[in-house]
Amino acid sequence: QVQLVESGGGLVQPGGSLRLSCAASGFRFSMYPMNWYRQAPGRGREWISGISPPGRNPNYAASVEGRFTISRDNSNGTVYLQMDSLKLEDTAVYFCYAPQRGVWGQGTQVTVST
User: Fold this and answer.
1) Average confidence (pLDDT) over 87-91
2) pLDDT tens digit string along 12-30?
3) Strands, DSSP E only, in 26-83?
4) Helices marked H in 16-64 — which ranges?
5) Interior CA angle at 93 toward 78 and 16, to 5°?
6) Is the pLDDT of residue 84 over 90?
7) Res. 57 pLDDT band, cuts 50 70 90
8) Cα separations in angstroms, 49 against 62, 83, 86, 89
9) d(Cα 14, Cα 113) in Å, to the nearest integer?
10) Which of 65, 80, 92, 103 counts the most CB atoms within 10 A of its CB?
11) Which residues touch 49 (CB under 8 Å, ≥6 apart)?
12) Contacts of residue 69, Cβ cutoff 8 Å, sequence gap at least 6
């Protein structure tokens, strides 16, 4: 069974940091690119970052460039999203996605609030 499970969300103050994890199972993780998306209340799902199978050439949406870092560990089938300098507008449910497998995780809530 192909599955993605996110974790690491929570409540953080502006300027704080969180690290999200997405554990993959049921497919050969190291062969597939991985993406992170987010969906804020009342808005559509927004792509924010992607990473190639070997972990090179990460790319980012302009809204998170310089603050978020995507990485992956192919030995344990996990992709990460390090989020620094968080802003109120980063509040959203964050999802990982394996585009070539068409699989989404269930999402993890990130709330940035004073």
Assistant:
1) 97
2) 999 999 999 999 999 999 9
3) 34-39, 45-51, 59-60, 68-73, 78-83
4) none
5) 80
6) yes
7) confident
8) 10, 11, 15, 16
9) 6
10) 92
11) 35, 36, 58, 59, 60, 61, 64, 68, 70, 81
12) 58, 81, 82, 84
Q: What is the mean pLDDT of the chain?
A: 97
Place of tokens 């049921």: 26
The per-residue pLDDT for 78 is: 98
Residues forming a β-bridge with 51: 34
Q: Which residues of 60-79 are buried (b: 16+ CB within 10 A; e: fewer)?
A: beeebeeebbbebebeebbb
- Residue 102: other Cβ atoms inside 10 A: 8
- Using the Cα atoms of residue 9, residue 101, residue 79 and residue 67 in order, give the sign of their dihedral: negative
- What's the confidence (pLDDT) of residue 28? 95
Q: What is the DSSP string of 87-108?
A: -GGG-EEEEEEETTTTEE---E
d(CA 62, CA 12): 22
Q: Name the one residue in this structure whose structure tokens are 């190639």.
A: 52
